[in-house]
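The instructor's notes for this session suggest beginning with a concrete chain rather than abstract definitions. Hand out the sequence below and ask the class to guess, before any prediction is shown, which regions might be ordered.
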Amino acid sequence: MKLFDKIYDIAKNQRILFWTFMAMAILPNFIMFFTESTSVLTRIINIVLPLGFYWFALTLNKKPGKMFWWLFIFMFIDAFQIVLLYLFGESPIAVDMFLNVVTTNVTEATELLANLLPAVIFVVIIYVTGIVLSIFSLFNKEELPHSFRRAHKRIAIGILIVAAILLGVNYGIDKKFKIQNDIFPVNGFYNLVLSGVRTTQSIKYESASKDFTYKARSTRPDSIPEVYVLVVGETARADNFGIYGYNRNTTPRLQAMADSIVYYEDAITMSNTTHKSVPLLLTSVGCEDDFDQVYQRKGIISAYNEAGYSTAFYSNQRRNHSLIDFLGCEAQDVNFLKDDLPLTAQLSDEELLRPLKKKLEEHTSGKLFIVLHCYGSHFNYKDRYDKGAGVFLPDNVTSAKKKFRKELMNAYDNTIYHTDALIAGVIDLLAGKHMPAAMIYVSDHGEDIFDDDRGRFLHASPLPTYYQLRVPFIVWASQEWKDIYTDQWLQLNEHRNLPISTNRITFHTMLSMSGITSPYYKENEALTSDSFKVTPRRYVNDHNEYRTMDDAGLKDLDIEQFRLHRLQFP
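After discussion, reveal the predicted structure:
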């Protein structure tokens, strides 16, 4: 009872609560002093400015518990920030993180949250305790003395004046510094607003793009039947593909047909997030365009529709009302394989071969274009293939901890093994048509799997890594296609060792292989053309700005991997 009485006395002491709420509010800022790679001055301001604000705010009422509730949205952002620091180790809450909350399906969220439990439990204890203490503050008779509030208000104003001076100095010496990018929680709220803008843009996509046309047309006779398939992979990194030199035979089927495929060693994505990378793959938007054009242009499927092709979109991902869904639904035949399945149901990507096979059997004349959207190697890895179908064992650990890296890597490699089976299955089905046909496989982005001392895991981090950027890009064509379009096949092989940005060249290469022309088609970005030109590669950052690779936030460890694998950097 004595211990309880002491706790109760502390809990109702308004001065103690004042300092407790202050500590809760500023906690992530202190953590970020040690995690961020910004300048020391920026990190100091990141503490001093918010500290002055919270200090001043808590003096505005006799009961600090009331101000805790006025500041509750800040506490919520604080909690979110701490969880993301646990996940990624650095950086403020990104726009993409807010968008992921909107677009991630229940299954994905459950799989991820299970591995964030330590951080979630920590913030729940901290901030739920704050809620309880704020209630104590509101309902006990004690109040902060007027003299206490007045004195601390002056201190807070002094701190804010110092912060303002430091801000001015920092703007003068650091040309990259922006308060909306580098000071928490300003950046958190700024990114929250941006995420709302982008969500609205996605919702309005159909109306914004309804009058858009590629003015696409086929340059080839309708009498020649042709089939083209674009396979969009998920979270597959090139480093774990056997054909890319991985020390495990994760791609036995592709290696057996190595002479009939072209795979590009130096291919990187322009985004480490699905909801940016896939729209860039499926539209003509490039570095010369404002990224927001993806919300106003139709996708590659519409270009094929205009050129007289039959089109289909088959997805092993769930609908999430994202831009990808809208782009896919432009096809004449749309099938989301999980539409009628329970939320917990899992399907291997090899199930995509079923509707593909049926479509190919029905296709006896004319031209056909199909997009397959995989679930690929998305965490939780062991759920991406049928139970008991793992080749690399043990693979049954689902806990995202570095000590389980071996098991996690086994499961991840199993996903690549089954991706190999999918790609080979697509090729077999196309080859069986005995007509001009071709396929491109490209992954949207890669993945971190505790690869170095940073202990990074997953993808979509505010700052990318080498492992999230390097992706496989694989092209296959039937013998019938090669016999007719010999020069294009020659150029595909000629360019296999050049550095490419997958999101820039996929649209143009696909149209070129299919004989489709459009005012939006760029010959110098088609791997089939002798006019193909290597251009500086860009990364689309969290604010949808195109950055050079040496300004993308990559660390020395990442650059070392680029050098080690003889990839171009920057």
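Then share the key points. The chain has two domains: 2-201, 225-534. Residues 225-534 form a domain with the Alkaline Phosphatase, subunit A fold (CATH 3.40.720.10).
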